[in-house]
Amino acid sequence: MKKDIKNLINLPEHVAIIMDGNGRWAKRRGLPRVFGHREGAKAAEKAITFASDIGIKYLTLFAFSTENWGRPEEEVNFILKLLVDYIDNKLDNLLEKNIKLRFIGRKEELPENILKTVKKGEENTENCTGLNLFIALNYSGRAEIIDAVNKILATGREKITEEDFRNYLYYPGVPDPDLLIRTSGELRISNFLLWQLAYTELYFTEVLWPDFNEEEFLKALYDYQSRERRFGRIKI
Ligand code: FPP
Fold first, then answer.
1. Rounded mean pLDDT of 84-88?
2. Cβ contact 79:63 at 8 Å
3. Alpha-carbon gap, residue 117 to 115, rounded angstroms
4. CA 216, CA 220: separation in Å to the nearest integer?
5. Which site among 56, 86, 125, 198 is 20 to 30 Å from 131 CA-CA?
6. pLDDT given at position 2
7. Domain ranges of the chain
8. How does pLDDT run across 106-135, given as a tens digit for each residue?
9. Torsion of the alpha carbons at 188, 99, 52 and 41, rounded to the nearest 10
C-alpha cells in the first residue's frame, strides 16, 4: 500500500470520521447487524494504522453516540464489547506505534467496567507522542457544549470569548478537524463535534464503513488536497 501513497502533501492535521453503514453492510449479506459492527471494528483498526503510518497527527472516530443507547441492548453491548476488546487486545500495537489514545464523551455515565478499560487505555498510552487517537464514546456535540457552559458557570464568569470557550471543551488543545469523512451516503453531521466542525471540509462517500479501506481513505485525502480553504475570507 505504501508505494501507492504519492503526492501526500497538504495532509490534514486532524481527520474526524463518522463510521456509518455497519448495519446496512450486514443486512445486504443477510447477516445480523452485529456482524457489520464486527467488520466495522476491523475497518476502524485499519484506518487507525493507516493514519498513523502516513503521519496524520489527530484522528477522531465517532464510535458511540449518546443516542445509541436507544438501540437493542444486545447491539449496544456488542459495540461496547468491541471497544473493550480493542483496548485489551491492541494496547501493545498502540504502544508500538506510539499512538496516544483518549476518549471524548460523557465518560462518567459509562458502566463501571467500560470506564475501567477506557482509563487503562488512556493511562497506558499517556506518554505516546505519535498519532493522537480520540474515540467518541457516549458522545454528543450538544452535550459537549452544554458541559462546557456548565463548567464556565461554575467558575462564576459572566462573559467569555470564543477562544476562552475552547478551553472548556473535552480536549482544549486539539486543533479543529481539517477534514470530516462520513461513510454510507448519509449527508448529516449527526451531533458530532458541533463546535469544532465550523470550518471543516466535509467528505461524503457511499462506501459502507466495513468496506472503508486504505484506498478509500486515500481518495478522501486526495479530494481534500484539491479544496481551497478560505475560512470565510476571500482569495487574494
Ligand atoms: C454506525 O453504523 C456504526 C456504529 C453506531 C458503531 C460504530 C462502532 C464501531 C465501528 C466499532 C468501533 C471500534 C473501534 C475499534 C474503534 P450503523 O449501525 O448506524 O449502520 P446503519 O446506518 O447501516 O444501520
1. 97
2. yes
3. 5
4. 6
5. 198
6. 56
7. 10-140+177-225
8. 999 999 999 999 999 999 999 999 999 999
9. -50
Q: How many percent of the chain have pLDDT more than 70?
A: 97
Q: Whose CA is nearest to atom 6 of ligand 1?
A: 63
Structure confidence at residue 230 (pLDDT) = 78
Is the Cα torsion angle 36, 223, 133, 51 positive or negative in sign? positive
Task: State residue 39's pLDDT score.
Answer: 98
Beta strands in the chain (DSSP E): 14-18, 58-65, 100-104, 132-139, 179-182, 201-204
* pLDDT of residue 7 exceeding 70: no
Q: How much is the pLDDT for 114?
A: 97
Q: Which atom of ligand 1 is nearest to the CA of 61?
A: 16
Q: Which amino acid belongs to residue 43?
A: A
**CB-ligand 1 contact for 68 (6 Å cutoff):** yes
Question: What separation in angstroms does the CA of 89 have from each of 56, 68, 94, 130, 138?
Answer: 23, 24, 10, 20, 21
In CATH, the number for domain 10-140+177-225 is 3.40.1180.10
Contact status, residue 144 vs residue 195, Cβ threshold 8 Å: yes
Q: Look up residue 167 and give its three cell numbers.
A: 478551553
- Compute, in angstroms, the gap from residue 16 CA to the centroid of ligand 1: 14
Q: Up-side HSE of residue 146: CA atoms within 13 Å toward CB?
A: 8
The SS3 call for residue 193 is: coil
Residue 46 near ligand 1, beta carbon < 6 Å: no
Q: Is the pLDDT of residue 6 over 70?
A: no
Which run of H or E residues covers position 150? helix 141-155
Grid cell listed for 160: 467569555
